[in-house]
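Private note to self, pasted from the team thread so I don't lose it. Backbone tokens:
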């Protein structure tokens, strides 16, 4: 079963034209470069869902069902605690 082909077919069937299938043809560096310019990224359970950049407030993903809320609360507390005018990461 080729999930990427199924998704692409569904997009074509719905008349969507502004997409690009990069399955199996993208390096990690290319992926990061492309993702940084996107408004939306749809991805399956793959390595790309685990990319994180804490300096930009991007937490990435975890493998625990229901594990997101505690991570978000911890991140929010960290933000609130460390926010200052001198630290641009939290501005």
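Design output:
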């Amino acid at each position: 079963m080729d999930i990427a082909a199924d998704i692409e077919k569904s997009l074509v069937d719905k008349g969507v034209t502004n997409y690009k299938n990069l399955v199996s043809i993208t390096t990690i560096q290319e992926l990061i470069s492309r993702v940084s310019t996107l408004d939306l990224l749809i991805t399956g359970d793959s390595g790309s869902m685990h990319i994180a950049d804490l300096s930009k407030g991007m937490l990435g993903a975890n493998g625990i069902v229901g594990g997101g809320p505690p991570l978000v609360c911890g991140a929010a507390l960290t933000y609130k605690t460390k926010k200052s005018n001198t630290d641009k990461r939290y501005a």
